[in-house]
Amino acid sequence: MPLLTTHDAAVAAATELAAALAPGASERDRNGATVIPADALALLDASGLLAVTIPSADGGPGLGPSTLAEVTRLIAAADPAIAQVPQAHYLLIDILAVHGDDGLRKRLYADVLAGRRIGNALAERGGQHAQDLRTRVAGGVLTGTKYYTTGALTSAWIAVSALGEDGRLVLAFVPRDAPGVAVDTDWDVIGQRATISGTATFTGVPVEFALDYAGAYEVPQQLGARAQLVHAAIEVGIAGGALADTRAYLREKARPSTEAVRAGATRATEDPHVMYRYGRLATRVRAAEALLADAARTLDTIGRVPADAATAAEGSLAVAAAKAFGSEVAVEAGSELFALCGTSSAASKYNLDRHWRNARTHSVHDPVDWKYHHLAAWELNDTRPPNHGQL
Known about the structure:
Layout: H1 7-21, H2 25-31, H3 38-46, H4 65-78, H5 80-84, H6 87-99, H7 102-113, E1 118-121, E2 136-138, E3 141-146, E4 157-163, E5 169-175, E6 181-183, E7 200-206, E8 209-212, H8 223-252, H9 258-262, H10 272-302, H11 309-341, H12 353-363, H13 368-381
Parallel strand pairs: 1-4
Antiparallel strand pairs: 2-3, 3-7, 4-5, 5-8, 6-7
Helix pairs in contact: 1-4, 4-8, 4-10, 6-8, 8-10, 8-11, 8-12, 10-11, 11-12, 11-13
């Protein structure tokens, strides 16, 4: 398994992976949860990218948020569903780095360095919100049902949030193939279909490895910001992928409208309205990329453990801006594609609507409006954002 020790090496590996993923992205989207994207995930697992953020003290490359954001953006531009599969994996590497003991880090990091992923089972359905948990660890045994389990189906380990016997939040790490673990393919949504983020059921699963998860958010932290940075990179990647397909279609397939011909255009790319709208969209995509890079640099400076609450807030707000704006631009790019390229681009054979579907589905992972709210609360009222995992 390659150990990607520099930013350039990681970016090169992501570029190569993206090129390999791009030709099959549309078909994986069409297949949804009916066909597990085993070949695509095997390429991801063998790329060395799963380990880029493992601390150097634990035998990893120790690369930072700027590398992770760019790697994710590149992959997401090719296939955002595959890019999302390791999102929680990177969060869990961070959690282990800050809160895992030596034995737990050694056990799981060794597997990650060997190309094995950690999936997540954090959210639930049926409660007041996704973190209204019914899953329990009692007597060293895990029992419960989870949903939105991105990456769990094909992972080596699954990190499961649960309440312990004292009612305190814990994070249990169980092998994917442990007795009592069942992961379903009941993922049925309009976008991000190949993530196969369906139901996971845990029935009397023995727990050998666990940590106090509540404590992670009782102190100033950047776990939420770093996790949200990957989500932001997925959105910005979707926007870039949609823009690239728009450009290709306009240059290779689109015909000028009758009005454009009357105005003297011989190609769709000469239509003045197409040029205006494309230029505007391209500028907004570049702005989203710049905000993402700026947020990543901010987190690079802060590190995994912020010095204080003020520093933690700085990182959270920088990422909030990138995520909120990137989500808007991704949805816009997926829609503008058809306004620019015309009726023929809506043919199902092109499957270009996947860009909008992916952006729209992923953008509601957590409320974008609240990110703008927290940005305004800080700018107008000096109110710091809340300390939780979605900021």
